[in-house]
């Protein structure tokens, strides 16, 4: 497989200016750039020579402008070489057309007029993916639990957005239920960005009290408060040049919201105990499972802060809406945990797969991951059976009519939460990790609730 310097590139476009500009841009990057105005000559060129990447215009007849010609020639190319790397070019930034071209097998999609840096980045990424595919990639033999996997239309839309948004500097807000993989998406955005070789710093905003907020995010100077024995940079400074991921941002207080907004507007922080602001260069990614727009409508979350953190929004679908992905994910996790526990990768009995597909997965992908891990550890044979997967009565019970949950004498919600935590803690004999998993919480979130309820 060719390196960048040895790569051969074909550009097919009926505009002479486009061909000239593309050749001028790429000729110092690669070994050879071949240009062609007439797509009718495309297949003949492919018979005579192999190309590592093909740039293909989507509209050759100005009277049509539908993109159908580009899709037609894309299919012709892939019919002859299913592994061909084709980047489609169009003057129309139509998302539906872009998604359609990717589904048809295009490697990527760019809009003209293009930015040279973005085009080169797309080219390098496409060539790198081609090289990895040719080598079989190490990840095929060593599965990773951090992969974003899925073949459903819902998750394909998410993956498409990640590819398009990642190379930009846009602030991103990730919405989704607990366990849908919001942090995985944040890491993917960072790894595919121009900041990939800089820090990725994650902060659980829900675990920060008002008193810890400023010192944790903005840092402090020695002597700023009783225990400040040395200077300490905050998370903003730690992420300088890279990406700052603020998880559970929907849980922060109005005081924290105001402080955060000021920092994002000014792009500088002032450590506690200092009067000197420190400039910061970060790409911000935020996430929440809270209904943040409802909170804003009730004046519980600042609308101006939403505008700051939400240049682009990605909503993660719950697992129950990712039709067809349960089996794929289950097999993926089975391979991971079998390897981790020194066992052969198991198969799934047909009735087991049926049971998994029928479950509503209120804990989403995280719940499925834990269920498969338990099954791998406890299963007797090398074929996972339905009895290897057990769900708590709360998870299995069908949703009851809302009225049935309303007692004659209303019980405060905080009391219900406290009783639930105490019951699950007792069941797990005080084990925090097991209790947090069963309640669908992080350990930090559980500790916060234990403190809140004085348990």
Please characterize this protein's 3D structure.
This protein is of the alpha/beta class. The chain is 45% helix and 13% strand. The chain has a 5-stranded parallel sheet, with helices on both faces. Strand 1 (8-12), helix 1 and strand 2 form a beta-alpha-beta unit. The longest helix is centred in the first third of the chain and has 20 residues, at 116-135. It is globular.
Give descriptors for this structure.
five-stranded parallel sheet, 455 residues, Rossmann fold, globular, Helicase, Ruva Protein, domain 3
Query: What is the SS-derived class?
Result: alpha/beta
Q: Sheet bearing the most strands, described?
A: 5 strands, parallel
Shape: globular
Average pLDDT, rounded to a whole number, is 83
Number of DSSP strand runs: 16
Number of helices: 20
**pLDDT below 50 for ≥5 consecutive residues: which ranges?**
137-146, 394-409
Q: C-alpha Rg, in Å?
A: 26 Å
Rounded to the nearest angstrom, the distance between the terminal CA atoms is 61 Å
Oligomer: single chain
State the name of the first-level CATH class of the largest domain: Alpha Beta
CATH topology call of the largest domain: Rossmann fold
Helical percent range?
40-55%
Q: In order across it, which strands form the biggest sheet? A: 2-1-3-4-5
Second-tier CATH architecture of the largest domain: 3-Layer(aba) Sandwich
State the CATH superfamily name of the largest domain: P-loop containing nucleotide triphosphate hydrolases
Query: How much of the residues is beta strand, in percent?
Result: 5-15%
Number of separate domains: 4
């Amino acid at each position: 497989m060719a390196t960048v310097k040895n790569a051969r590139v074909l550009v097919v476009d009926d505009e002479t200016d486009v061909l000239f500009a593309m050749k001028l841009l790429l000729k110092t990057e690669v070994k050879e750039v071949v240009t062609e105005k007439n797509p009718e000559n495309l297949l003949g060129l492919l018979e005579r020579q192999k190309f590592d990447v093909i740039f293909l215009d989507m509209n050759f007849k100005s009277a049509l402008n539908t993109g159908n010609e580009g899709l037609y020639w894309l299919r012709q190319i892939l019919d002859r070489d299913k592994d061909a790397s084709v980047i489609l070019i169009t003057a129309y930034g139509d998302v539906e057309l872009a998604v359609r071209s990717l589904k048809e097998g295009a490697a990527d999609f760019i809009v003209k007029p293009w930015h040279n840096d973005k085009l080169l980045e797309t080219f390098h990424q496409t060539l790198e993916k081609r090289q990895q595919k040719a080598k079989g990639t190490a990840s095929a033999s060593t599965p990773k639990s951090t992969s974003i996997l899925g073949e459903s239309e819902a998750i394909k839309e998410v993956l498409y957005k990640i590819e398009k948004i990642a190379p930009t500097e846009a602030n991103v807000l990730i919405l989704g239920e607990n366990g849908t993989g919001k942090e995985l998406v944040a890491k993917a955005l960072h790894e595919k960005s121009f900041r990939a070789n800089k820090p990725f710093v994650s902060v659980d905003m829900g675990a920060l009290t008002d008193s810890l907020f400023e010192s944790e995010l903005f840092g402090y100077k020695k002597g700023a408060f009783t225990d400040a024995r040395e200077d300490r940079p905050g998370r903003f400074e730690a992420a300088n040049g890279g990406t700052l991921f603020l998880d559970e941002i929907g849980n922060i207080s109005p005081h924290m919201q105001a402080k955060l907004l000021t920092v994002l507007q000014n792009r500088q922080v002032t450590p506690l105990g200092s009067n000197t602001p420190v400039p910061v260069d970060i790409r911000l990614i935020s996430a929440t499972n809270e209904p943040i727009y409802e909170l804003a409508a009730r004046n519980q979350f600042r609308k101006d802060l939403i505008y700051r953190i939400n240049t682009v929004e990605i909503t993660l679908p719950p697992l129950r809406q990712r039709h067809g992905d349960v089996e794929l994910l289950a097999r993926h996790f089975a391979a991971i945990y079998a390897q981790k526990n020194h066992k052969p990768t198991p198969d799934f009995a047909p009735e087991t797969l049926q049971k998994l597909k029928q479950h509503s997965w209120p804990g989403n992908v995280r719940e499925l991951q834990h269920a498969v891990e338990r099954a791998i550890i406890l299963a007797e044979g090398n074929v996972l059976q339905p009895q290897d997967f057990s769900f708590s009565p709360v998870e299995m019970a069908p949703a009851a009519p809302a009225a049935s949950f309303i007692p004659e004498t209303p019980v405060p919600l905080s009391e219900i939460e406290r009783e639930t935590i105490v019951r699950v803690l007792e069941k797990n004999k005080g084990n925090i990790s097991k209790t947090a998993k069963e309640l669908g919480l992080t350990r930090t979130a559980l500790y916060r609730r234990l403190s809140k309820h004085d348990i």
